[in-house]
Design a protein that fits this description.
The chain has 325 residues and is α/β, with parallel strands linked by helices. The chain is 30% helix and 27% strand. The strands form three sheets. Strands 3, 5, 6, 7, 8, 15 and 16 form a seven-stranded mixed β-sheet that branches. It has a six-stranded parallel β-sheet with strand order 11-10-9-12-13-14, sandwiched between helices. Strands 2-1-4 form a three-stranded antiparallel β-sheet, with no helix packed on it. This is Quinone oxidoreductase.
Length: 325
C-alpha cells in the first residue's frame, strides 16, 4: 500500500494526514505514475483552506509532479512504462507516492531535465510562459514589474523577461532576497518593507510607469500596482498570497489611465493539449539554453507537507520547493 497526504476537511495545516492510499489501476485513458518529486505551490494552500474548493472530500492535494510511468490504460498509445514525465494542473492528486492521472495532461521530459527539477518548474515555469507571452507579449524594451521577485514564479519571470530584452523591476521583502532577485536578472530590486514601491517605480521609470505589472500578492499590493502602470498598461493579477482583492469599481481603470486588468489561470491557458505542449516546449527550451536556471531552494519529505506549506505561507522559502515521496 502506498501513501498520500489526504484531507478530509478544509482548514489549517493540521487537516493534512499521511495515510495509506491505493490509487488503483489506470483507466483506459490514464497513466499510473510512480512519483519521484512533487511541486509545492500556493494553490495547494488555497485548496487546503477551502478558498479554492476541491471537487470533493476526502481529497489528495497537489497539482504538480514528475516521475516514471508504471502502467498505462488500453487507449493510451503515446506513453509507455518507463517513460519519464511531468505535469502541472488539474486534476489534483499530486501529494502521493503513486497516482493515476489522465495521459493527456502529461508531457515527456527531455533527458537533460531531472524529475526533481521538473517538479520545481512545471507549474511556475508554464505560468511564467503565459504571463510573458499570453497575458502581455513582453518584448525588448518593455518595462515590467514583478512582485515577489525572489519567489518561485518571480525568479523565472525575472530571468525569462531579461532574456526577452525587457527592463525588470521586482519587489522583495528583504535585502537578502533583493540580492537573489538581482542574480536572477532583476535590474531594479525594490525592498518593499523599506520604501514605497509605487514611488520607487515612478523614480526608476522617470514618471512614465511600466508596461505590465505581474501581481501574485493580491490584496496588499493591488491598488499600488495600478499606480505603477503607464497609460493603457496591463495589470495581471495571478495570485493572492496576502488575501483576495476586494470588489472593484471598474471605473478606476479609466481614471488611472485606461488600464487593462486580467485574472488568468494556467488551467485555462493550457486546457488544450496543443497549448500545454507549446508551454512545456518553450519552458524546456529556455531552461536547456541556460537562459533560465531553475532554483530548488528547499526540499521536504512528502509526509512533512504541512511544514512545507507553513514555510511557504510565512515567506520562508526561496525559489521552488519540492516534496520527495
Amino acid at each position: 500500500m502506498t501513501k498520500a497526504i489526504i484531507i478530509h476537511e478544509t482548514g489549517g495545516p493540521e487537516v493534512m494526514q499521511w495515510e495509506d492510499h491505493d490509487p488503483g489501476m489506470p483507466g483506459p485513458e490514464e497513466v499510473r505514475l510512480n512519483q519521484e518529486a512533487v511541486g509545492l505551490n500556493f494553490i495547494d494552500i488555497y485548496h487546503r483552506t477551502g478558498l479554492y474548493p476541491l471537487p470533493a472530500l476526502p481529497a489528495v492535494l497537489g497539482l504538480e509532479g514528475a516521475g516514471v510511468v508504471e502502467a498505462v490504460g488500453n487507449r493510451v498509445t503515446d506513453l509507455h512504462p518507463g517513460d519519464r514525465v511531468a505535469y502541472a494542473g488539474v486534476p489534483p492528486g499530486a501529494y502521493a507516492q503513486v497516482r493515476c492521472i489522465p495521459a493527456h495532461r502529461l508531457v515527456r521530459l527531455p533527458d537533460d531535465i531531472s524529475t526533481r527539477q521538473a517538479a520545481g518548474m512545471m507549474l511556475r515555469g508554464m505560468t511564467a510562459r503565459y504571463l510573458l507571452h499570453g497575458c502581455y507579449p513582453v518584448k525588448a524594451g518593455d518595462r515590467i514589474l514583478i512582485h515577489a521577485a525572489a519567489g518561485g514564479v518571480g525568479s523565472i519571470v525575472c530571468q525569462w523577461a531579461r532574456h526577452l530584452g525587457a527592463e525588470v523591476i521586482g519587489t522583495v521583502g528583504s535585502a537578502e532576497k533583493a540580492e537573489i532577485a538581482s542574480k536572477n536578472g532583476c535590474h531594479h530590486p525594490i525592498v518593499y518593507t523599506e520604501v514605497d514601491f509605487a514611488e520607487q517605480v515612478k523614480t526608476i521609470t522617470q514618471g512614465q510607469g511600466v508596461d505590465v505589472v505581474y501581481d501574485s500578492v493580491g490584496q496588499a499590493t493591488f491598488m499600488k500596482s495600478l499606480d505603477c502602470l503607464r497609460p493603457m498598461g496591463t495589470l495581471v493579477t495571478f495570485g493572492q498570497s496576502s488575501g483576495p482583492v476586494p470588489p472593484l469599481d471598474i471605473g478606476i481603470l479609466s481614471a488611472k489611465g485606461s488600464l487593462f486588468l486580467t485574472r488568468p489561470s494556467l488551467m485555462t491557458y493550457t486546457a488544450r493539449r496543443e497549448d500545454l505542449l507549446d508551454h512545456a516546449r518553450d519552458l524546456f527550451e529556455v531552461v536547456a539554453s541556460g537562459a533560465v536556471e531553475i532554483s530548488i531552494g528547499q526540499t521536504y519529505a512528502l509526509k512533512n507537507a504541512a511544514r512545507a506549506q507553513q514555510d511557504l505561507e510565512h515567506r520562508k522559502t526561496r525559489g521552488s520547493s519540492v516534496l520527495i515521496p
